[in-house]
Known about the structure:
- This protein is α/β, with parallel strands linked by helices.
- 41% of the residues lie in helices and 17% in strands.
- It has a single domain (4-218), classed as Spore Coat Polysaccharide Biosynthesis Protein SpsA, Chain A (Alpha-Beta Complex), CATH 3.90.550.10.
- The model has no long low-confidence stretch (mean pLDDT 96).
- Residues 83, 85, 87, 148, 193 line the site of magnesium ion.
Amino acid sequence: xxxxxxxxxxxxxxxxxxxxxxxxxxxxxxxxxxxxxxxxxxxxxxxxxxxxxxxxxxxxxxxxxxxxxxxxxxxxxxxxxxxxxxxxxxxxxxxxxxxxxxxxxxxxxxxxxxxxxxxxxxxxxxxxxxxxxxxxxxxxxxxxxxxxxxxxxxxxxxxxxxxxxxxxxxxxxxxxxxxxxxxxxxxxxxxxxxxxxxxxxxxxxxxxxxxxxxxxxxxxxxx
Length: 223
Ligand SMILES: Nc1nc2c(ncn2[C@@H]2O[C@H](COP(=O)(O)OP(=O)(O)O)[C@@H](O)[C@H]2O)c(=O)[nH]1
Ligand SMILES: [Mg+2]
């Protein structure tokens, strides 16, 4: 039986973290490792620890720096990423795990069918452009390249040397995709956030665009 790790980066997510961790434990019937890489000044790490998560402190250096540490710390055969803001419905985790058991290397939860009502319009536009660009450049149809919710086979996480910060989610998809690993997307609902966003949509778009160009065009085959 595959061991499962759910890993999250958190920065001041005290409004959501308790609910998210409890839902993970309920959904997985406690048969799960939860890893949190935390850069908060609020109660987030305390709440996470009390609920049994492994909390690693890291001064806040951005989304991808924290998520990279989190995926590398997970000890499971299957590593699942999630935002700690209650936007990704946790009930989808078993579906993602099932896809990996069917032989896929990555199962990715797409928020981008239609216009997701809880996403800011600037983010909707940016995400549509990025997905179209990756589709054209990789010749593989993808709908959401920046989702925070995916399941990865452990080998994928340890096969590449990850370089991106804001663009890490795109990198985690594009490099395995171009390398020929089997990737499957499922559609999920995207819920309203608890607490404030930590990322700037405009700066975020530009740095993810850089990531897409870098890995779709210039580093196609390099590990
Ligand atoms: N440890 C850590 N976590 C971060 C940092 N920046 C963002 N996060 C977390 O990364 C996840 C994604 O950020 P979020 O604000 O939800 O971005 P959005 O989904 O684009 O609005 C959330 O769980 C944040 O708390 C950081 O610098 N350090
Ligand atoms: Mg979020």
